[in-house]
Amino acid sequence: MLPMLDFYRSAMRLSMLVQFQYRTANYFYMIGMIAEPIIYLAVWNVVATAQGGTIAGYDAGAFAAYYIVWTLVRNMNIVFTPYGWEERIRSGELSGLLLRPLHPLHYDIAFFAGWKVVVIVLWLPIAAILTWLFQPALAPTWLESGVFVVAIWGAFLIRMMFLWLLGLISFWTTRVAAIYELFFAFELFLSGRIAPLVLFPDWVQALADWFPFRWTFGFPIEALIGQLSSTALLSGLAIQAGWILVGWGLVMLLWRQALRRYTAVGN
Amino acid sequence: MELARLIAVFARIGILNELQYRVNFFFQILESGISLLTGLIGLALVFRHTTALAGWTPAELLVVMGIYVLMSGVVQSVIQPNMVRLAQDIFDGKFDYILTKPVDAQLLVSIREWQVWRFTNVVLGLLVITAGLIWRQVELDLWQVVIFIGTLFCGMLALYSFWLILTTTSFVIVQIENLINLFEGLFAAGRWPVSIYPGWLRALLTFVVPVAFAVTVPAEALTARLSGATLALAIGVSGSLFVIARLCWRWGLSRYSGASA
User: Fold this and answer.
1) Residue A261: what pLDDT?
2) What confidence score (pLDDT) does residue B97 get?
3) What is the Cα–Cα distance from A111 to B182, expressed in whole angstroms?
4) Which of A31, A43, A198 should we substitute to test contact with B (largest number of B Cβ atoms within 10 Å)?
5) Which partner for B221 in A84, A201, B148, B152 could form a disulfide, CB atoms 3.0-4.6 Å apart?
6) Long-range contacts: A26-30, Cβ < 8 Å, 24+?
7) B185/B180 Cα distance (integer angstroms)
8) Do A195 and B45 lie within an 8 Å CB cutoff?
């Protein structure tokens, strides 16, 4: 256990140093991502105003809070892209990864986790500007803040596992774009990314309970903006842990099958 | 005439090249379909809670979405591939070859790539526009259609000029992926009429990133919202953008020192 912690500490520190060097590129990327929540926010603000200020319990301030917290959660759940696997396999880069003493998943988790630390620091000024522009209504309790801090890392791990799983399809076929796009479309609606899940019909909300998506987006956001009871906060963390385990188990299972399909090319 | 002939030749080569990969067509249809469906569900979600968005009815917003799909088809099939290739050529020095050709270099770098399967989105966009117009049940007169087509061309000119300005920065800085990323994020704002955005964002989407002229103004032309002043502004801004793009291009060329490919 201790050597493992040691590895994570070193690998995360390394990736923090690397990513901090590319802070301008990182910033451009983060600013490019802000457009999406601002568009959603503008649309819902117009709708809420037309409906007398509130829809499904959300007013302008609550929507602003939702989508500003959204920007951090979105940044947290960017992980190794499933599109990256084709390159890893085709270029033979995977052969190198396989020679290392630990499972490649650990290297990805550590690399992205370290990056997240840089991202959180870079996000703070963006959040300040957005707060000034959109006046969110945000007054989290200590419990809500605490759960949020844990939940964003839970969201990161769940999405890490499931996108890894998705990426492993590349071992069987390279025609993956349509499958991935379908996955992302499902995620868009069932996670709370395009809008808070309460704005959807009941059957969509019921459907969302069967997928991991809402635990990577809606749950952390709702936790911080005060939409959840104490029980829901704590049981949410437990469900996140459950999905991490499910994702991890599936990755381990599929990984063995996938590797059998891999014929190495020298790197 | 020479211009039309050149474009025709390059388009033909590009199309022939892409026709080799016929299966891609079906995957493109699949992807375009998923992306359109996503947009439609988003629209349905909004109209679950309201009957009109800033004065736009569902049918009219369908027209907006159709124009957005059409315009992104144009960007993806011609404008973006050409500009990405230009940036790549500047980076690895192949741009030298362009300069040795007896045609205007700006023209040449703008017509080399034709991703024909991506035209799927153009066709899909036209279908969505038609569906929106039928649903709206208001007769169009010929004059409206003419102005619509005119504003569409203004929008394309504005988008092209904007992309060229963006790409000329690669004469100075190496990485333009992030700029492309930034553009795509902002362009997605065109799914909705720019009037729903706060003032500062509307200004940004009108005068910096030409989303308003590319999508909203043509939609206004089709839904009888367009004023003469807006039309004049659309023509003026896209014309000026083109001139600015030309000046940027000249300036970029003067900085290019060749890399001996």
Assistant:
1) 87
2) 87
3) 24
4) A43
5) B148
6) A26/A118, A26/A119, A26/A122, A27/A122, A28/B178, A28/B179, A28/B181, A28/B182, A29/B178, A29/B181, A30/A75, A30/A119, A30/A122, A30/A123, A30/A126
7) 9
8) yes
Q: What is the least distance, in Å, from the CA of B18 to any CA of chain A?
A: 17
For B196, the closest of A43, A55, A199 (CB atoms) is A43
Closest CA to A109 of A230, A237, A251, A231: A251
- Cα separations in angstroms, B87 against B80, B92, B177, B255: 11, 9, 10, 14
Option in A38, A43, A188 nearest B201 (CB): A38
- Tokens 């568009």 -> residue: A39
Q: In chain A, what residues touch B42 (CB-CB under 8 Å)?
A: 194
Could you say which DSSP state residue B129 is in? H
A50 with B53: Cβ contact below 8 A = yes
Q: Is there a contact between B45 and A199 if contact means CB atoms under 8 Å apart?
A: yes
Q: Is there a contact between B192 and A47 if contact means CB atoms under 8 Å apart?
A: no
User: CB neighbours of A108 closer than 8 A, spacing ≥ 6?
Assistant: A79, A80, A160, A164
pLDDT of residue A1 exceeding 80: no
Residue A150 CA, chain-centre distance (Å), reads 13
Do B113 and B82 form a contact (C-beta atoms < 8 A)? yes
Q: How far apart are CA A92 and CA A105, in angstroms?
A: 17
Token readout for B257 is: 């020192």
Compute the nearest-CA separation of B38 from chain A (Å). 6
At CA A84, angle to CA A81 and CA A90, rounded to 5? 165
Asked whether the beta carbons of residue A32 and residue B34 sit closer than 8 angstroms, the reply is no
Residue of B27, B30, B34, B195 to mutate when probing chain A, most A C-beta within 10 A: B34
User: Would you state the pLDDT for residue B261?
Assistant: 46
- Residue A19 DSSP SS3: helix
User: CA B28 to CA B118: how far, in whole Å?
Assistant: 7
Helix, strand or coil for residue B56?
A: strand
Rounded (5°) CA angle B144-B146-B150: 115
Q: Which residues of chain B make contact with A31, given a CB cutoff of 8 A?
A: 182
- Partner-chain residue, chosen from B31, B37, B188, that has the shortest CB–CB distance to A177: B31
pTM: 0.90
Instruction: Tell me how many degrees the CA angle A18-A22-A23 measures, rounded to the nearest 5.
Output: 115
| Residues of B in Cβ contact (< 8 Å) with A195 | 45
Instruction: Write out pLDDT tens, residues B21-69.
Output: 888 888 888 889 999 999 999 999 999 998 888 889 999 999 999 999 9
